């Protein structure tokens, strides 16, 4: 697991870097359909499972982004209350 960035700017820069949509994302979206057309059923299941695993990894990364933002908000609130 990566340590949380130190500043708010670094937080947003870190989070923004993961949101860039690449060609890979589109390929993953159509991979099960292409597999269903061209491959045997066992390969369709395998491709679908691989896409599912990659999507779960993507969801975990977005949850980590929310945790980084929540940590930053908590630090800012604690700093505001101490003043």
Features:
single chain; 83 residues; mainly alpha; 3 helices; 83% helix
Question: What features would you describe in this structure?
Answer:
- The relative contact order is 0.13.
- By secondary structure, the protein is mainly alpha-helical.
- Helix 1 packs antiparallel against helix 3 and helix 2 packs antiparallel against helix 3.
- It contains 3 helices and no strands.
- The protein is rod-shaped and about 65 Å long.
- Portion of residues in beta strands equals under 5%
Q: How is the main sheet built?
A: none
Which range best describes the helical content: under 10%, 10-25%, 25-40%, 40-55%, 55-70% or over 70%?
over 70%
Q: Tell me the series of helices and strands, N- to C-terminal.
A: HHH
Structural class: mainly alpha
Overall mean pLDDT: 77
Low-confidence stretches: none
Summarize the structure.
With 83 residues, this protein is mostly helical. The chain contains 3 helices and no strands.
Lay out the secondary structure.
Layout: H1 8-18, H2 23-38, H3 41-82
Helix pairs in contact: 1-3, 2-3
